[in-house]
Amino acid sequence: MRIFIMALLLWTYGLSAHAAPKPIPILMYHSIAEFKGSGIRDLYVSPASFEKQMQYLKDNGYTLLTFERWSEADKVEKPVLVTFDDGYENLWNAYKVFAKLKDDRFQPAGTIFAIADFINRPNRLSRLELLEMSDSGMFSIQSHTATHPDLRNITNYEYELKGSKEKFEAITGKPVIALSYPYGFVDDKVVAETKKYYQFAVTIRQGVFVAKGQADELYRLPRVFVTYDMTLEEFAKALQK
Ligand SMILES: [Zn+2]
After folding, report:
1. Which string of DSSP letters, residue by residue, matches 25-68?
2. If you measure from the C-alpha of residue 85 to the centroid of ligand 1, how many angstroms do you get, rounded to a whole number?
3. Is residue 109 scored above 60 in pLDDT?
4. CB 205 within 8 A of CB 172
5. pLDDT, tens digit, for every residue of 38-53?
6. Residue 87 C-alpha to ligand 1 middle, in angstroms?
7. Among positive and negative, which fits the CA dihedral 157, 160, 166, 172?
8. Domain 21-240 grouped into CATH 3.20.20.370
9. For residue 20, what pLDDT is reported?
10. How far apart are CA 118 and CA 145, in angstroms?
11. How far is the CA of 51 from the centre of ligand 1 (A)?
12. How many angstroms separate the alpha carbon of residue 146 from the centre of ligand 1?
């Protein structure tokens, strides 16, 4: 028994001396708008729900990071990333919520994974809008490729990965370092190509990221899928998993 207690004390001491890596939830959203019946319900979150969720993060001491500030995750209080795939125009609803909640203590920050060749389509953010979002300091514009293909089945990686990165960098004047794989599809070949141009890549695998020191773990980042009917309790729970 005494040996067991000693071992337990040593183990506890070891844990505090080498603090375990902090879990980093990466929230995944698509449209921030009311679902009106067309398309997939769970690719929407209503502006009211989104505001409640961001208010929860604010009230509970979360620090909203972007990929540029990834290295701060171990230093800040409760790190979390808020990401939006596909670059829809209705992300102005997210912008409004961020602007409303922003104060000296709470600095909202989100990452928009936009599709380079879809810019200026009717329901997507235009060049000017992406620039305005970026200049607000509340959004980082990152890449969701050029044409949203299944990256496992293409050969023109340079166009999809490097081309899209350069297009967004030309629009915002800021570095593009993170990629969102269309449909979350990824294999070893896709990771190898992505590594040439990016420091991070996100999937749609469900979960909260905890660093394990595995090769390529930053190129297979899991995310927390925020669904349309998720309650605030479910949202809070998903941040812990
Ligand atoms: Zn997508």
Report:
1. -EEEE-EES---SSS-GGGEE-HHHHHHHHHHHHHTT-EEE-GG
2. 5
3. yes
4. no
5. 889 999 999 999 999 9
6. 9
7. negative
8. yes
9. 79
10. 10
11. 22
12. 11
Break the chain into its structural domains and give their ranges: 21-240
**Angle value at C-alpha 151, between 146 and 154, nearest 5 degrees:** 90
- Residue pair 165/175 in contact by the 8 Å Cβ criterion: no
**What spacing in Å lies between the alpha carbon of 168 and ligand 1's midpoint?**
16
Neighbours of 23 (CB within 10 A): 17
- Return the percentage of the chain with pLDDT > 90, whole number: 89
CA distance 215 to 107: 32
Task: Give me ligand 1 centre to Cα 204, in Å.
Answer: 10
Centroid of ligand 1 to alpha carbon of 182 (angstroms): 5
Cα(181) to centroid of ligand 1, in Å? 8
